[in-house]
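DNA repair system specific for alkylated DNA
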Amino acid sequence: MLLQPQWAKEEARQQKPQPPQQQHTPQQQLQPQQQQPQQQQPPQPQRPTARAAPARLPSGQSPAPTLTPAAAPGWDEVPPHMHSLERCCAAHQRADHSPSSSSGSPLEAELFALDPAAAAALLLHWAPQSRPFQAEQLARARPLVAALLPALRRGAVEFGRQQLADVAWGLSHFDAVRFSALHGASAAAVARYGQHVDDQQQQQQQQQQQEEEQVQQQQQHGDHWSAEFCEAMQVPFRVLPCALQDLRLPDFLEELGPALRRDVIYLDGGARAVEEARLTGWQSDIGATFKYSGKEMAPLAGGLTPHVAAVRDRLLLLTGQHYDSVLVNLYEDGKCGMRYHVDPLYDAWTPNTAVVSLGATRQFVFRDAADHACRWSYPVSNGDVVEMFGDCQERLQHCIKVERRARDAGPRISLVFKQRIRHADGSYAGM
């Protein structure tokens, strides 16, 4: 029998009971707001039209996914007073300031005692709740997440592939990478990594120096909790939620929209011509073209546009890779997706790729090229980054799942950053 602590009972008396809401796990398909009549219908953003500059949306970000592992193993063993991360943080803070507090709060002890499946289910519930958190709120949540780690580590040897992926995804919301993302990338840091900065950025270097040192200290001394579970997965990719959460979809629609187009591509070895569902564009700082499915894209004149270049510079700090080109994809609604595929390298591109999501939440799925039943599924939301490396394009395929209805998802842009192979003499492969 699950016992509810006194602090939870007191809070429950002060609040009106709320009806339960049906929610979903990261590995399940996200359901639209239209299927939840008890929630107020959010205003639908205006959809951009093909071959035209998309109109500015009322909001640059889709709502954060509300994911509750109601069907996940162990969720029934999670006490109701643990469901709200914000309330748990408040209770933990009160216990820390209590005169009788010595080593750890009662809530930490309860979390420590959860079995692995319950700890994993609770982590999946807490992770999306943390998306709006700022650094101070996130710092208050970290001791509670740390209390789950022993159970998660015990369960790692028995977790299946999706459970390991879910735990790594959940922990990424709370570890050092998330703290660094909250601070953003400074011009001084970009300069120290060998990138050129303009005069205005150089003038800002002194003011940003202190913030950059704080970010570096956090990266050096912070815990990368998700890393050990990513390593246990033994896959050539990682998913970084909230890494660039401050980006706004309307800014990119305005900047990129006029250059996006819908092309005809050729499938089945060129035997079948079809019109692409998504709109695409191509940018390159080195003048490289890009080929796939029978079409070749010339780069936009002038290299990377300002917003795209700023994202590229921030990815340098996040991934350690300098990307020189980017494929822009606009998925206009939920019926616009991308079937399973691999990104062509053509002996011209390195395997290092970073996919930045802007706008609506969509399901990003990897599957083993040799065993299609072996899959890893993630809800990617505004500001999330998927990094692919090593033999990812050889071992795995990936896709953006099509929703049941067009209105089930709003517009989403993905920026697929690529890196051309560069020879010792400074020349680029195939150019």
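thats it. The CA atoms of residues 289 and 298 lie 5 Å apart. The chain is about 35% helix and 15% strand. bye
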